[in-house]
Amino acid sequence: MSNDVFTPSRPAPGRTRFTTGPLPVLLASALWGTTGTAATYAPASAGALSIGAATMGFGGILLCLVAGRSALRVLRSAPVGLLLTGALSIAVYPLAFYSSMALAGVAVGTVVTLGSAPVFAAVVERVLDGVRLDGRWALAAAVTVGGGVLLITDGVQLGDAGGAVAGTLLGLLAGLSYAMYSWVAARILRGGRHGSRAVMGAMFGSAALVLLPVFAWTGGPLLSTGVGVAVTAYLAVVPMGLAYVLFGAGLRHTPVRVATTLSLLEPVVAALLGVFVVGERLGAMAWLGMAGIGIGLVLVLTRR
């Protein structure tokens, strides 16, 4: 049987269920956590829109090429409304996310985006799928989001009030976009007709049709130096191409609200890289916040 076709089966207990569901999502989140550090090496003149459009535009083309003909089968057979919703959500996400970080700061933009995504995902699943939310998920989400708030309040300077408000609103838009395209991908995957590479290739390849023109308009400074080209290649291949293949595989066996909660590992990885690679310093509240995120992730992973 081809790897591009997913045949629904009962998940195996214990280790197998973890390795096929939460583990790929956690690995993807860890790779996403490297984006902020990588972006610090981009030319100073490169704007947020160009970095976001390059990351998911070129990455989307890469995912589509890796999927090959299986992505075309998704485009031909999946509901048009679902595909359009997913592609437009993907196109909005990087533009809103990187602009949020540029206006409100990397830490604030990251945590607002990822902290709001589990809430949006839960609302989407409740409204569109009728999923009943339980108290354990609510506790895990509250602990992880609270940990994220502690992580960013320790010595973070918001700058001007207007930029902080605009950045926060854009972060919320990015969180909603992330939740929506995750839900669309999971919905198509659980139909059982297509594999994760095919679905991700079709969705992200379609989004690239919107993102690459944005890059053509804004991306000159990013490609003006060899370092900028290297940063673009890394962002497109690793935290975009590889990470979203892992994320799509994990979505087969992980509810969207749980997957988006697990993605809160990303700001922890970003903060640790900031300390040990970039040379930033974190105070006691930030370390306490990371511990809170860790506790929340454990609550999600140990649920029955």
TrEMBL record:
Transmembrane portions of the chain: 21-42, 48-68, 80-96, 102-124, 136-153, 165-186, 198-217, 223-247, 259-278, 284-302
Domain of life (superkingdom): Bacteria
InterPro entries (UniProt xref): AA-Vitamin_Transporters, EamA_dom, EmrE-like
Gene3D superfamilies: 1.10.3730.20
Keyword Oxidoreductase: no
Residue ranges annotated for the EamA domain, each copy included: 22-152, 167-301
Main localisation: membrane
Key words, A-Z: Membrane, Transmembrane, Transmembrane helix
Topology in the lipid bilayer: Multi-pass membrane protein
Subcellular localization, as worded in the UniProt entry: Membrane
Family: Belongs to the EamA transporter family.
PANTHER family hit by this protein: EAMA DOMAIN-CONTAINING PROTEIN, INNER MEMBRANE TRANSPORTER
Protein name: EamA family transporter
UniProt organism field: Saccharopolyspora erythraea (Streptomyces erythraeus)
